Known about the structure:
Strand content: under 5%
Mean pLDDT: 85
Distance between the termini: 42 Å
Radius of gyration: 21 Å
Shape: elongated
Amino acid sequence: MQIVDPNQDVQEFNDPQGSFGVKFRFAVLDTLVLAKRNLLRYVRLPGLLVFSTIQPVIFLLLFTYVFGGAVRGVHTKYVDFLVPGILIQTVAFGSTQTGVGLAEDLQSGIIDRFRSLPMSRSAVLAGRTLADTLRNLIVVLIMVVSGYIIGFRFQNGLGNALLVVLVAVLFGFSLSWISAFTGVSSKNTETANVAGFVWIFPLTFASAAFVPVSTMPGWLQVFAKANPITNSVDALRALTLGGPVNHYLLYSFAWMIGIVVVFAPLAISRYKSRS
Length: 275
């Protein structure tokens, strides 16, 4: 009778000569376990999700009713122009929580427990970004409903409406890797929180999220047009309002892929160096 070693999977995972398929399988399983762990936190502390939703709703109402009448250069209802920008702002601000969460885990010592386990190092970061992406999905759907309540409408069909949600969530996922890098590079949660908004605020407000780029000074237009947030907002507007889409989607996905390709390895490498 063949005896099965219960530690065989662990040994195979730790073996540097082990197959790529085995290591990949364990990395995926570890990522899903850690993503579940991070999502359960929202179940136990629902206030985290509630306040993550309240802030973008406040921005939506403020910009619509306070600033909407003063914005010029918009050839449609301002709320239809604004909602795509608010969706991108929502996932951009939400991505900063990835860094704060990782910094909190590092500070609390839970990461030291993870390091003592036979698990993939990258799963800690991937699990966090996956959980935050699913949270972003929930918040984006809430924001779409909130927009509908105050008059926003998709004008380009259900398929494009679903694509709007997908693009917004994927863009937030890519930004989460920048936040993950700042989180594992920070010494505490306070530093991670400040560091996250240092880069996200200029990108968000110096973009086409809230006003047309044409209304900005010439020198700022150069930055705004190259801004990844502007490219993603323009893609969402083309999907919601109609018009040429492929050009904007191409640039938006190019930015997403580029950000992940650069910052995912940097974040993982930085995390490993703190072991």
